[in-house]
TrEMBL record:
Record GO cellular component, one term: cytoplasm
Family matches, as Pfam families: Epimerase (PF01370)
Localisation per UniProt entry: Golgi apparatus membrane; Golgi apparatus, Golgi stack membrane
Cofactor(s) for this UniProt protein: NAD(+)
Single GO biological process annotation from the record: D-xylose metabolic process
Signal among keywords: no
Membrane topology classification: Single-pass type II membrane protein
Alphabetically ordered keywords of this record: Decarboxylase, Glycoprotein, Golgi apparatus, Lyase, Membrane, NAD, Signal-anchor, Transmembrane, Transmembrane helix
Record protein name field: SDR family oxidoreductase
Gene source species: Occallatibacter riparius
Organism phylogeny: Bacteria, Pseudomonadati, Acidobacteriota, Terriglobia, Terriglobales
GO molecular function, one term: UDP-glucuronate decarboxylase activity
Predominant subcellular localization, coarse grouping: Golgi
PANTHER family reported in the protein's UniProt record: UDP-GLUCURONIC ACID DECARBOXYLASE 1 (PTHR43078:SF6), UDP-GLUCURONIC ACID DECARBOXYLASE-RELATED (PTHR43078)
Occurrences of domain NAD-dependent epimerase/dehydratase (ranges): 5-238
Length: 310
């Protein structure tokens, strides 16, 4: 069935891939974005797509796009340098922006899916992280503008589900990468791939023993689409459980880019989570979903895009 769908953050990395997937399934998509960390280049290929419209707006201001059947709320700075530069804006989009998007879902009796994050677990004391873990977050540290915005947003989404009857979904996204990641936004995969392709040393913050688990974008979008079709209101982790130290990740990138310049060690980042790995039991059981693309293969799939950004 063709439905009218609102995607906030549509000009971003994930929002643009989600938009492509929704259009491929025959839906009509209204994308909104204030372009604070996104880029209309990510939507340039949709210029002649009659089922897609783009509105440049800040979702922290109340807005209306007419009747919609579904809302995907993806607007928020997402890279640590991005949200630390836009601290107040990040708290505002997680709170005011999320509530404005929820009000649209309530008004039109639309489904609602919110892009939450593994960062809700903070620097976790439980490993791997399952959805039942409440997290270990410094509420006043440099990452708090993002972590607490996302935790507040989860509470708000659950409240609109419990008290206002909105059919909501919460996906806790773990580190995801792929083409259209902003090459300059400072995340580890984009930094490493650009450094690798430029023949520069890869910058590791700290000793490189901190871990992350990297999911390729097409796997993530598939999991999100499956969740959006359920009536599951509680959070679901979507991510790739293959855990790598940042040093191992650098070695993979060095392998795919044939980089000979080695590694440069930089000071550790304050409050940097030391370990992160999703427990995806719930996604496996509820959604019959698991990721398919290995880090090595995903990095290879990224090369044409990052080469085009050199
Ligand atoms: P991104 O920065 O590429 O995209 C976010 C988009 O939101 C940008 O286009 C930005 O301009 C837009 N935006 C920000 N504030 C806005 C506002 N007030 N009004 C309208 N638009 C606004 O980041 P991404 O990686 O695509 O992340 C998308 C969502 O997924 C975010 O909510 C992020 O927190 C979440 N997430 C991403 C990851 C990941 O690994 N990529 C992990 C966990 C959660
Ligand atoms: N990192 C790094 N070098 C970089 C960028 C990031 O060593 O050039 C590290 C960072 O300190 C963190 C991990 O890589 O431990 C993942 O960082 P990213 O910013 O991608 O996402 P996070 O998971 O911290 O939100």
């Amino acid at each position: 069935m063709k439905t009218r769908i609102l995607v906030t953050g549509a000009a971003g990395f994930l929002g643009s891939h989600l938009t492509d997937r929704l259009l491929a399934e025959g839906h009509v998509v209204i994308g909104v974005d204030n372009l604070s960390t996104g880029n209309t280049d990510n939507l340039a290929h949709l210029e002649n797509e009659s089922r897609f419209t783009f509105e440049s707006r800040d979702i922290c201001e109340p807005f209306d796009v007419g009747q919609v059947d579904y809302v995907f709320n993806f607007a928020s700075p997402a890279s640590p340098p991005g949200y630390m530069r836009l601290g107040v804006e990040t708290l505002r989009v997680g709170s005011l922006g999320t509530e404005n998007a929820l009000r649209i879902a309530e008004r039109y009796k639309a489904g609602f899916l919110h892009a939450s994050t593994s960062e809700c677990y903070g620097d976790p004391l439980e490993h791997p992280q399952s959805e039942s873990y409440w997290g270990h977050v410094n509420p006043i540290g440099p990452r708090s503008v993002y972590d607490e915005a996302k935790r507040y947003a989860e509470a708000l989404v659950m409240a609109y589900c419990r008290y206002r009857g909105v059919n909501t979904h919460l996906v806790r996204i773990f580190n995801t990468y792929g083409p259209r990641l902003d090459p300059d936004d400072g995340r580890v995969i984009s930094n490493f791939l650009m450094q690798g392709l430029r023949g520069e040393a890869l910058t590791i913050y700290g000793n490189g023993q901190q871990t992350r688990s990297f999911c390729y974008v097409s796997d993530l979008i598939e999991g999100i689409m499956r969740l959006s079709r359920t009536f599951e209101h509680l959070p679901v982790n979507i991510g790739n459980p293959d855990e790598f130290t940042v040093l191992e990740c650098a070695q993979e990138v060095i392998g795919v880019t044939n980089n000979m310049s080695g590694i440069s060690y930089e000071p550790a980042v304050e409050d940097d989570p030391t370990r992160r790995q999703p427990d995806i039991t719930r996604a496996r059981e509820l959604l019959k979903w698991e990721p398919k693309i290995t880090l090595r293969h995903g990095l290879e799939l990224c090369l044409p895009y990052f080469r085009s950004k050199l």
